[in-house]
Amino acid sequence: MYGLMIIIGFQLAGEVLVTLAGIPFPGPVLGLILLWAALARGWVLLESVEATADFLLKNLTLLFTPVVVGAVVYKDVFAAHWLAIGLSLIFSTAAGLIVTGKLAQWLEKGGPSNG
Q1: Cα dihedral 7→8→10→13 (10° resolution)
Q2: Please, which residues have CB within 8 angstroms of residue 78's CB and are 6 or more apart in sequence?
Q3: Consecutive sets of 10 residues in the chain, 115 residues long: mean pLDDT of each?
Q4: Which of 1, 49, 103, 105 has its CA 20 to 30 A from that of 97?
Q5: How far is the C-alpha of 74 from the C-alpha of 33, rounded, in Å?
């Protein structure tokens, strides 16, 4: 239960910071970045969130159920706009993979200290 409180606490912190700053950025993503930084610095011990994170990952498919139900409910919209939706999924996935790969290469070469 303690691990869940930590994870939700960081998600809440991200939401609050995004709301206060008024930036168009997902609060949960900022919370995840903050949690990662806290883990990297040793402020949060991996053991304190590991069991909860493992449980959430093992049951991840349950978290996608609302998305699937939404897709079934809006099947007419998907049928009418399948090309635009499909192309946006393909290109956004490709862009995410490219940016992630380039960032990983940059960080392996030394990141900010390397220029």
Answers
A1: 180
A2: 71, 85
A3: 93 96 92 94 93 91 83 90 95 97 91 70
A4: 49
A5: 32
- As given in the structure block, the two tokens for residue 114 are 């390397």
Q: Whose CA is closest to 32, among 65, 56, 62?
A: 56
The residue among 38, 51, 70, 56 whose CA lies nearest residue 3 is 51
Phi and psi for 6 in degrees, rounded to 5?
-65, -50
Q: How far apart are CA 99 and CA 91, in angstroms?
A: 12
Give yes or no for a contact between 25 and 18, defined as CB atoms under 8 angstroms apart.
yes
pTM of the full structure: 0.59
CB crowding 70-105: b at 16 or more within 10 Å, else e = eeeeeeeeeeeeeeeeeeeeeeeeeeeeeeeeeeee
